[in-house]
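Second attempt. The first submission of ATP-binding protein had a stray character pasted in from the spreadsheet, which I only caught after the job came back as garbage. Lesson logged: always re-copy from the clean sequence file. Corrected sequence (481 aa) follows.
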Amino acid sequence: MGATIDIGTDAHGTPVPIDVEELLATRLLVQGNSGSGKSHLLRRLLEQSAGLVQQVVIDPEGDFTSLADHFDHVVIEGANYSPREIEALAGRIRQHRASVVLALEELEVEQQIRCAAQFLTALFDAPREHWYPALVVVDEAQMFAPSAAGEMAEDTRRMTLSAMTNLMCRGRKRGLAGIVATQRLAKLAKNVAAEASNFLMGRTFLDIDMQRAADLLGMDRKQAERIRDLQRGHFLGLGPAVSRRPVAVHIGSVKSGGRNGASALTPLPQADAEEMGALLHGGLAEEAAEPVRTPAPRPPAPDLDTVAEAIAAKGDSAPDDTQEHPRPVSAGSVDDVLAAMLAEEGASFRQASALFRDFATRCRERGVPSAHIDMPAFRRLFAFASAGVARLDDGQRTAVERMAQDVPEDVLAPYLAIVVAAAEGRRAPDEDTLARVYGTASPGRIRRLLEHLEKCGLIAVHEDFGGERTITVPGIEAVAA
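This time the job returned cleanly.
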């Protein structure tokens, strides 16, 4: 056994351990009707493993935000950030190994689904050097991986199914261990549920859900009746990280609490019908005559850099990193940062992901706002900078941007280098210049590139019998004018 935690006790009071290292490799599916104790189980699992592994919680109801009161979790309110900021935060979460709760309760259902899908996709797409082990807990997983389209838009359904499938099917190699919890197995996409090797099944009553749970636990139809009789907080567990044979588990206690309404009975007020009627009707006309009260304005969202600093402080283990640092004073612009990067030898030969990380670091050091720039936007900005578009006047730059609007990112830099040369009245760049801008040392690749650009109608290449090559650019007249 590797690093183990105590999830609860069996029927004899013996502790039931979960091997966290095995869980990272084999994933977990939790199922149970509302009130069966799923959230309590997830909370116990998160609390017990908080000091062992990074945790990321997708929380549609805001039930897990109280983890921040007891552990080093950063709460991210999804409603406060744009899609690009959510993706940027996901990248920083993986980089700094921060444990976070993505709270989505203030969003509409479809907005919750899209926000979670973009967040999970950004976690999945993190660069290889940030593939640290992490538990990714998705509560109410039937929302994010539905078995049927329901009422959500088709593009939203495809987006969220892709994100959840990547998490459960391909996340292991990237260090992401999916833990999904659902009320109804029948409503959860089968390709998502099938990738889990560990199961904790709570009380359920519908035959179709009991049968699917029994199939996953290797139980026959008669044994499946046990699932209907389970008490709240009791689950049947099976899997390499839990037990090789089905085991009954009574989930242990937790420190943090959810925000669910009280389910226990509370004494009714001691008032007869006459007194209660007076309380209900007293001053009713005056209250109804008052103007409608507008809700208090939402407090301003925390600045993205402020949240990033919190993530870095809680994710890094070095004690010096947890101290507060003054915000850097802005020194330059995005163009200045790009120019400094291009001034270094071999910049265009580096991978785009490494360049983007270097760019984000330089912007942070100089205090240059860059949260609005994601990877695709950076690649286009870098292509414009490496081609020297900044040397053109404002009118020419506008025309060049219009010409390059639909040019693919992977060939944008050499295309712009040709356009800039034509706009300045110079000869077309030679193969060495184009190779340097394109980030290759292969002349053959440049020749294939020119052929590709010509087939796309972006340039026209003429070569005479002496081998002299001339390149013309359709639409260059607008730039020259």
